[in-house]
Design a protein that fits this description.
The protein has helices at residues 17-32, 47-53, 72-80, 89-96, 98-107, 120-126, 128-139, 165-173, 218-222, 237-253, 288-295, 300-311, and strands at residues 6-10, 38-42, 58-61, 115-119, 143-147, 157-159, 178-183, 188-197, 200-203, 207-210, 228-230, 259-266, 272-278. By secondary structure, it is α+β, with helices and mostly antiparallel strands. The chain folds into three domains: 6-86, Rossmann fold (3-Layer(aba) Sandwich), CATH 3.40.50.20; 93-110 and 186-279, 2-Layer Sandwich (D-amino Acid Aminotransferase, Chain A, domain 1); 115-183, Dna Ligase, domain 1, CATH 3.30.1490.20. The strands form three sheets. Strands 8, 9, 10, 11, 12 and 13 form a six-stranded antiparallel beta sheet that branches. Strands 4-7-5-6 form a four-stranded antiparallel beta sheet. Strand 12 and strand 13 form a beta hairpin. Helix 1 crosses helix 12 (300-311). The longest helix has 17 residues, at 237-253. The chain is globular, with a radius of gyration of 19 Å. The active site is at residues 16, 152, 287. It is an enzyme of class 6 (ligase). Residues 102-309 form the ATP-grasp domain. It comes from Actinomadura logoneensis.
Amino acid sequence: MEFAHVVVLAGGLSYEREVSLRSGRRVADALRALDIPVELRDADAHLLERLAADPPDVVFPVLHGAMGEDGAIRDILELVGIPYVGARPDACRVAWDKPTAKSVVARAGVDTPASVALPKELFHDLGATAVLDLVVTRLGLPLFVKPTRGGSALGATAVHKAEDLTAALVSCFAYGDSALVERYVDGTEVAVSVIDGPDGPRALPAVEVVTPNGRYDYTARYDAGDTEFVVPARLSPEAAERATDAALTAHRALGLRDISRTDLIVDGAGDVQFLEVNVAPGMTETSLLPRAVVAAGLDLGPLCETLLRRRFT
């Protein structure tokens, strides 16, 4: 059967809207190159009426951030009975909340940095100084602070001195009401993408991220500049296997479907630490998953078509 109408869903109103639009355009262009009829739609107030007036065969959500990765938009697609690429709502909700995802993946046997989740209200109730002193005493320094929900490294900061922790939390709370404070792990940052196929999930080559200042922040992700991406990552065979196993374990343990990207740190001993997982990985020209696709000898368009056909009935 051939596709009559495919919708790539991008945009939305999260902090990651512009990245989502860029990802959506790239996926849509890749599918159009295969003569697949694609419409690129925003997740706006007109979405439901347009889906009802002209239901697509299948939707490819490329929404980043809230609504796109928290399961909400997928709940709506299930309510209207339209098939879609990617994880189902319940799995999205677990993966979207970083502390919960860390707990699930840790129970499945993958190491993850020691951490604590701190709601903003806690500082008002218990006193900021007492809480921060306890965090530093318990976790030590350096630390890494990021929102418990969200992506693209927005609000994320490495903290090397105790006096900088307050500023890092203020920055974090600009993007969410709760912060995840992790023990900082020095090592090689890698991302391992997983694609479901007829024989089960398959891990693509790990992508290593190297930045001049050691910070893979929003600017480094989407305005690459001097950021270097090495694929396959420069890991020992044993460490590369551990990274692959960690990504596959996270994909399965979290109940993900079709596509995911797991971010990891590999320390000097070759041990792998799970950081977080993405259920709607970036598809921009600087994103990690498309680089892994090329390294695996695949093309983005045919891969996206394969994912569509898994849901096309």
